[in-house]
Amino acid sequence: MKKISLITSGLIALSALNISVSYADTIVNKSPFYFNLKSSSGTCPQQIAPGQSAQVSGYCGYLVCATNQYDANGGCQELVGDGSGKLTAGGYLSYVSVSTWAKQCTIGASWFPYQCELDATGNMNISYKTMTQVYSAGPNAGQPVTLPKVATYNSGVAFRGINVSGLEYDGTFLDALFQHPDLPDVRYFAAQGMNMVRLPMRWEYLLSDAHNAVESHDPKSGTINQMYLDAVYDTVQKYLSSGLNVDLDLHNYMRFCATGTSVGQGNEPTNAGTAGNQCQLVTADQLASIWNMVATKFAPLAKQYPKQLVFELMNEPFSIDNIPAQQLKVEDLFTAEVGAIKAIRNQGITNLILLSGDYWDPLHGWVTESPSAADLPNGSVFTAANLASAGVSDLSNIAIDMHQYFDSNWSGTHSVCQQFSSYAEFEQKLALTDAKGTDVFGNWLKTNSMKVFLGEFGAADNATCSQDMNYMLQYVNEHAYNPQNPVNGGFIGWTTWRANKHGYTGFGAFNFLQAEDDNVYGGNGTPQYTQGYGIAPGQGNNLMTEVLSKYLQPSASLSK
Fold it and tell me: Mean pLDDT for each consecutive 10-residue tract of the chain (560 residues)?
């Protein structure tokens, strides 16, 4: 009889899998997932399905997948989601190694938040635990990763930071949890003087169907996906306790899109108008319901960090006007968000809450523009008077989240930015001023004494885009909120888009804002640290060093 070692490099709470291994070289899969053989130097079954047990010997390395579809070259497979029945890579949960030669139960990567124990009967149990993330390579191997102290500004906006994308990643919640952000993922940004993380999360992953943890089809499901919720909570808690501010962002575009192995990749809110996509506009009671659930979970942290933790009700709501079922009115969005505010406040939470406007939540044209004659500009609906009439009279901890990109259609999906001949032209093209130079947006701020947060803005790394970014931050600082004169309203901060682990270079290659950091990423582009262990190291670029740096105060405690 030998003890079996099960080594995992997955990024999720495996307690929910309930994996059991006995002394008799038998692995029992009590999870809802499939073990698919990736590599071996012994006797190993090709696949171990849920509920099955198998005899193993030697070394067996498995990819744990959400479906029984597996390709040796492409890895875990799941449906594309366009109704074609085609498969694509996705649904990757973790890598599990079973070795019958080992005499002890160990976890392969010491900084992952899991523990492994053998019980009295010889079964192996893996459970989730909160721990300081420890890096296992580089000059400070084995030392906890800590964040440098972030300097506090005496002037300008209070919040300056980065979107850390990943937990909202489309696919199944397993895809998102595979890139669970942690402290090393923000170390570089904190060192540059950033003090805020906007952390997108996804509604469909917070809930699951009662019969299947991977499926999510009901926006008011009573089944909480504890694995995903705990992962989000763990990240938020670590950031807050390290001194960062956190904007917890429900990144759903005012839609709930069914997810899971039966739907597959691509069923994502930004594709809500495509054939085969199972997305629905959410209702006011649904939005209040999900925020009641989130607020219940986060109330202790909110009360512990009343100035640091921020709740953003909905990322970039939008309407598809030629599809009746996908039409969204500004007034209906406003009503739904007011209901969500009340759901959060009912938990005794006084923290800052961010509202979002319709039409992808733009800063440009906020006061003057609406895409159809049947609707109103955001600025005509999101007013202090309307909030007071709806029962939200205290605006001290209310702000509007707005986004701004600089390419031809303001989407942030192109590397070529609009070229403005002057700062004045920049203001006019964004409808911040009119043809006479009247400060249209600034007057709206003053009329409503409204706070504004620039939650997303970004561009490619070139001279024209850099100029646009500079103009944007110049405008933000000129219209910064002054606590000594709150009646004027103004910007309270910004978070630029984005950082995450993918090599995808869209949105202006913002994944590469951070410079290579040996203490966090292993250095020199080491493959195992660029593929799966957090945000890929980048070379750094001019947007950080020549634009954003003007509005930041780097920490003197940064060491390489």
Answer: 35 41 57 79 86 76 78 79 75 64 38 43 44 40 68 80 88 77 81 93 96 90 92 92 96 94 82 88 98 98 97 97 92 98 98 97 96 90 98 97 93 88 97 96 98 94 93 96 95 90 50 57 40 46 86 62
Question: Which of 250, 404, 254 minimizes the C-alpha distance to 318?
Answer: 254
Residues 230 and 270 in one domain: yes
What pTM was estimated for this model as a whole?
Answer: 0.87
Write out the residue range of the structural domain in which residue 323 sits. 160-551
Spatial contact of 460 and 509, defined as CB atoms under 8 Å apart:
yes
- Name the domain boundary from 105, 128, 151: 128
The token pair at 558 is 């940064």
Task: Note whether 386 and 475 are same-domain residues.
Answer: yes
Amino acid at 272: A
CB 70 within 8 A of CB 85: no
Is the four-CA dihedral 516, 522, 524, 529 of positive or negative sign?
negative
CA angle, residues 119, 122, 125, in degrees to nearest 5: 50
101: in domain: yes
C-alpha span between 104 and 458 (Å, rounded): 49
Strands 47-48 and 353-356: unpaired
CATH of the domain at 262: 3.20.20.80
CA separation for the pair 263, 155 (Å, rounded): 49
Residues 261, 208: Cα–Cα separation, whole Å: 12
- Domain end residue (candidates: 106, 128, 150): 128
Number of structural domains, the chain? 2
- Considering the domain architecture, whether residues 169 and 123 belong to the same structural domain is answered as no
